[in-house]
Each structure stands twice: as C-alpha cells, then as structure tokens.
Amino acid sequence: MNIVFFGSGMFALRPLEYLYKSKHKIIGVVTAPDAKKGRGLKKISSELKNYSLSLGLDILQPKYPNERFFIEILKALSADLFVVASYGKILSAELLALPKKFSINIHPSLLPRYRGAAPMNWAILNGEKETGVSIIRLNEQMDAGDIIAQNTIMINPEDDIISLSEKLSHKGTSLLIDIADKIESGNIDFIPQDERFATYAPLLKKSDGLIKWDKSAQEIHNKVRALLDWPCAHTYLNGALLKIFKTKVSDESEKAGCVPGCLAAILKESMLVKTGKGYIEIFELQLEGSKRMHTREFLLGHRLKEGQILGR
Fold it and tell me: CA 105, CA 147: separation in Å to the nearest integer?
C-alpha cells in the first residue's frame, strides 16, 4: 500500500522506521513546521523530520493541515492509507476521507481511556498499573474512532515517561505492521468505543510540574516519573527553582514535628523529605543556573540543614 505518515513527536519515530522497512511504501511524511528555539530563535528540525530526510522521504510541513490547499496536495498523492502517530493536531473529516482505504491512528492508551494529548503522562500521574496501545480508524472527534486492535502492557514501579514511551512504541509498532497487512488484505474488523468509559488526558502545562508537598510520597513520586521530559517536577530551595529527576518512596517511619516539605534527613546518596503522607528520597536534581547532578554531588557544593523547608 502507498501510505502517507503523519507524526511529529518522538513516539512516531519507530512506527515510521518499521513502516519504511515493511512491504508498504511511504509516499510522504506530514510533520509540524520547524520550531524556533534558543536565544537566536533559530529554526530547529524535529528528529522525525531529520530521520525522514535521511531516508529520502518527501516532507510536508503545513501549519494548518485542514486548509483547502493542503487537502488538494494530499489528494494528488492518491494514498491507500493515512497513518497518524503523535501528530498533535485534529484532522478534518474531509482530510481523513482522502485515502482509498481509510485513516488510522496509533494511540498510547487503552481507548476509550486517556483520550487526548498526554495519555502516557497521565497514566503514570494517576498511578495506573497498566496501559497499552490502541489502533483506531480515525474520525473527526479526538481519539474516538472505532477500535481495530489493542495491546496491553504493565506499568512497572520504576517506569518513567521515557521508559514507558519506549515500551509502548515497541508494542505499538509491531501491532501497526500487522494491522497494515490486514488492511491491505481487507481482513479487518471495527469495534465502536464505549463512551461510558471515556476519560481524558489533557495537554500538560508548566504549572503541572509544581510539587505540592502536602500530597503523598507516592503521588509526588508519580509526578517526578510522569513529567521527567517536560515540564519536570519542581520545587523551590531558598527561592531558587529546583528540578527533581529521580526519587523513591521511602519506608522511613513518621517523625514527630516534621511538616510537609521539611528536609528530614541528609543521607549519603540522597535527601529525605517529608510529604503529606510518608517520606520521599531525592537522588537526582538540578538547581536553577546549575547542571543536573546526583544528590551526592549536589550536597558537596550546597550547605543544607535538616529542618529546611522546600517549596519556598
């Protein structure tokens, strides 16, 4: 089949790679326009775009993919199938109807649960024990199309957003290739989503990373794991932003007079902090204006005292 691939995020890299290596042909890659970053606002290409260029694939970067001129460009390609993975935009019914077959999406959750932009992050934030990938036939509603196939994986206690994304990308890619072959042969079934079980995973905000020390140690640990790439779990130390990258829920017993956010102990490899329920150990962190480092290294250059309060 001739396939147009839509993707922008890192989650889309492996599906694109394996589709390219399959018997199917990628006739175009639709991705987001280059982003302006840094002090000079230099335009930076995504890894997916750079990888596509290395394969010699044609790149399309519309700012508004549902506009008439772009729909005409896609129509001229006469694709059999559109495959969408981590593209980040809602596509119109007219655009989705262009392929000779239909349009499909690989989504990193067990739909109808966690529809939206950040399903993996919210699954970790909410303490889920399992998640998965779904391949659906796209319609104009967000992640609400008929289910073609699903696979489930466990979320391990040590998983963070990076490791979970990697696992789901592997799982979803193998499923995608199998489904593409079945679509070509016409051997495919569709299962409508049950709207009663729909939940949502909205786009993350920078403020979502702020640690509220009155939450439980497990909730704070989940935040650190879920927001490791962005916006990163953070607090304040003597008025300076302190990002936290690696933690563990401690089995330390409760101490009298220790309030949430209190630095309860300075250990050899970590700092022990009181939360609203239990204690959490911090192993990797980054103070504003400095580099990311292990807590052991951080303590060599910063005089901290037990009883100090984080978050101020």
Answer: 10
